[in-house]
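=== RUN LOG ===
request id: a7f3
mode: sequence -> structure
chains: 1
length: 343
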Amino acid sequence: MSDLQIGLILLGVVLILLVLLFNWWQDRRVRKQMQERFPEREDDPLLGPGPLTGGPVRREPGFGPATAAPAAEEGDDPAEVDPATEVVIDIAFAHPVPSSQLHAATQGIRRVGNKPVRLFAEREGGGHRARLRPSEDYVSMQLAVLLANRSGPLTEIEWSELWSIAQGIAERFDGSLEGPEQNEVVDLARRLDAICAELDAMVGLALQLPGALTASEVARTLEDAGFLRHGSQLAWMSEQGLPRFTALFNGQLPGEVQSAGVDRVELVMDLPNSPADDQAFSRMASVGRHLAANLAAQLLDDQGRPVVEGADQAIDQQLHQCYQQLADSGFVAGEARTARLFS
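=== RESULT ===
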């Protein structure tokens, strides 16, 4: 290679370096001018106000109660599937599904037949959700149906209905299903129903009035004695904020009475849904006697016989054993999971 060729190559390299240096200087000068004209903002105008602007945050509804959606960094939601009382269908999505789309596909799912259904989702990148949160994507979800309640065990029809719902969601998002066989599910449901039937218990007293009174008169007498409104019920409340026992007028809830008058008031203690109490019956009998005196009524047991004073403590001991059997079986009286079964 001649000296001339080497010189031309070196000259070319120098020219290329000069061009690159000029482009870098030009780019830096333009960036500086743009920053002077358009200073940086705390929020991106395309994404909406950031946390420092005080703007409203959009919240999407989800599976659970309507509460403010916490940030994703707060970790897993505490509510999860109860394998002792629920059976699950898993749906894995082919691609992450935005929360808005998943909510639209699941918002009508509450129960199949007489069995409640709970929904859970797994966030892309990790995170268990009992309630959908804004601006999250989900890679899978679970449909958990209760195996048994007071309407009986989960039936083949109820399970088939849930499976059809799951198939529809999977097809919508190109997902896949996984769940137990129907025969296995039905067998589990029947076994749980048999256990619950042995544990279920209600205790009642009745006030037989000498004549008919209006529902409002009877309700006022009960409220004066200490009963409180609890939803559609009139209830004697526990320290935990749950009913110890409730009142029925002629076998109906106070607000549902259609007859012109009330001549019978039942006090009903639903043991699985009433917090454990060593004096459960004594407390109800004491209130019953007080009401009987105020209404000039006769206090009867659930067999229609007059209540005997000396029997209170013996019945308290029997009910204590019932509460203990519930707890030993894993169903503490008054807890939410127990209430799902005994409803």
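=== NOTES ===
The first helix runs from residue 3 to 37.
The helical segments are 3-37, 99-106, 156-172, 182-199, 215-225, 280-295, 312-328, 336-341.
=== END ===
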